[in-house]
Write a structure and sequence with these properties.
It comes from Sorangium cellulosum So0157-2. This is SMP-30/Gluconolactonase/LRE-like region domain-containing protein. The protein has 264 residues and is mainly beta. It contains no helices and 22 strands. It has a 4-stranded antiparallel sheet with strand order 4-5-6-7, with no helix packed on it. Strand 1 and strand 2 form a beta hairpin. The chain is globular, with a radius of gyration of 17 Å.
Amino acid sequence: MYFTAIDAGGRAGVFRTRARGGAGSTEIAAGPPFVAPLGIAASADGGRLFVADPGAGGAALDDAGALFAIDLPGGAVAPVRGGEGMRARGLEVARGADGEERIVFSGRDREGGQPGVFALPARGGEASALAAGSPLVDPSGVAVAGGGAVFVCDTLASPDRTATIFRIEDGFVSAFATGLHVGYPCGLALTRDDAALLVLARDVARGADEVVRIEVASGARSATVTGAPGHDEPGGLHRAKGADVFAFVDHRAQEQGSVFLLGP
């Protein structure tokens, strides 16, 4: 499993740990150009990682973020052309109608600063807006269905400051689920059959993490408790490529943060 973190020396970067557990983690790439990496996703063949860092970038862009690609297993890091200056946060890698991989990410429009969800060829190029502006306020986690629909979690879109999940399809944005208490960046993932959306959330009454399963067709919800009381700073949620097995992190677990695995 790959995750973003800060090492004992204070360097931000990308690290790896074994899915079945074990001692510690392995550094993939840490230090510059990373500043505050958040979102992470892998290419379909597992040969590259893509990382969203909203704090990266040169002075000319006022540290307005960048997208990076990491070659595996070597760890060489390079910016993804077209991702600079958009304060990218959450991202997913999906195939477009042309069969080419693209990065679908949340961030802000480079010109007007509007919050939105954008698509960019994984090889680099020009980013296009899938949705920008209202009702989006602070989008972070994204999940892409096989048919092209995009789900995005917005932590500030509701008046009561609970999270709203929006569905973006054919340029239209609609509220899919409301009233969720989540961490940051909000974690979203679809099951392999796209039948259910999993949201990494907080059980406010227990003060602990939970994963909320929302059936896409009906909106019905169920929750799975995933942490002990005090583990209430969840962030990120990703599904394995070939199975309904999910990984997420909690920034407060075991005092220094931990990576967790949620099986079927």
